[in-house]
Predict the structure.
Amino acid sequence: MIITRKEAVCMYFSQECTDENYEKFSKKIEDFGVDVGGMDICYLEDPRKPVVVSLVRILADPYQYKRYITNSLVSSTIESVKEKPELTTELQVVKFINYVYLPDVQLNELAYKEMNINMKDIFNTVNMYTDIMINRSVQSFSTWCQKKGILLFNAPMNRKRQKTSSVRLRRVYVLKQEYLDNLAESIINYIPEFQKHINNLKEKGYSIVGYARKSEGKETDKTRYRLLERMVDCLKSRSLVNMVFVSPCCSSSSPLTSRDLKGKSIALEKIAGVHGNTQDLINYLDTTDDNVCLVIVDYSGLSTNVNDLKQFVSNHKKLKKIIIDQLPFKHETKVINREIILEDPSVLSIFNCRTNTNQRSKDI
């Protein structure tokens, strides 16, 4: 969902979204920040719930205080084209397409325009922001989009007759061109801002702890060690964890406190960079004086047993945050705070989600 800064400002003050109201209430936000070095509108999780926060806090942690997309007028000069932000991974491209072309919109979002569009138009727009597709044909690009589950394929399709052929068109909502640069930049900056947030937590005294698990399977011990070691490396390189605990062989639904009770049945010393198993993690949570942020790769990387997970969080008071790293699959992360879990355990329902298997050892 894309909500512009203009919409957010008017929404915050419960006013109709007009140019006049936007200018009036943007000035009001400026006035709020006169004595604190400036303020701006942003959001924490839901863009439909804007908040006004000091610029100092926003700039210090742009991952937590997310700013709204703004109008960046596109210049037609060749020089400006070269300066366009460049998407460098397929995941970034998927994210970009899924934001730019929507089969439907919510709240009559003003950033979008309903129109008929063909794959050639989409292909040309994407190639303005990446070189990844430069060697593909339009047909090859279309096939790639289908394999990636691009959302616009949920939109109805019709054919338009031309002189010598017919063109397939889809009726979709397209993000207006003046917002494309800003969107691409926000996607590119996502991981650096996430890592800046992790470092901010460290500065506040948090211990950033990773956890990885491997399900029972038929692979050899050597393969199991290798896959677990890759998960550990990903947690360290992407999420900057200080230490990592692993469960070498358990199901995603098994109670956390029952895991690895038989000791180190698989020699953990064969997995580089590991600080212990699940029982060692539990002992650490029980004895540390630091607030702990637990980082996992995907929801099933911790547990799909929602009731057990709620009890686990409740039992360990130093466990303050859980971060779910889905960067290799969706270019996303999610932070769930302890207070929210205890107040509304239903937030953990997202862990009951194992309908398919994501490769947790996968790098970006």
User: Anything to note?
Assistant: Residues 74-82 have pLDDT under 50 and may be disordered. The first strand starts at residue 39 and ends at 43.
